[in-house]
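JOB MANIFEST
job_type = single_chain_structure
chain_count = 1
residues = 114
[input]
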Amino acid sequence: MKKSIAILFALFALAASKTAFAAEGKTYTVTIYVEQILHYHDAETGAEVGAKNSGVTKETVTVYAETEYEAEQKAINQCQAMCSNKGTYQGKANYAGRTCDVYKERRISRATAQ
């Protein structure tokens, strides 16, 4: 009987210590940097004739995670649908002496957690 109580006590102590040392999460504010790239397609052939970077925007999200890395990955996954897209028509413009159809692509370049 004493051995059973000692074993139960040891198991309880082990479980309590694992709970005490378990990583606790916190709320992180993550800044996601989104590149905006303009793609120029020849209006007659549809072939892409060039592209240029038109800047970077920042999106901020709040996520709950155990580490900064996990927070960054969760934020990228959360933002993927709203922050990234390809092929949004912007209109016509001249590029390299040609009239082109312009399409904007948005893609996530990096994320930083704070």
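[summary]
The longest strand covers residues 48-65.
The beta strands are 26-42, 48-65, 85-95, 98-113.
exit_status = 0
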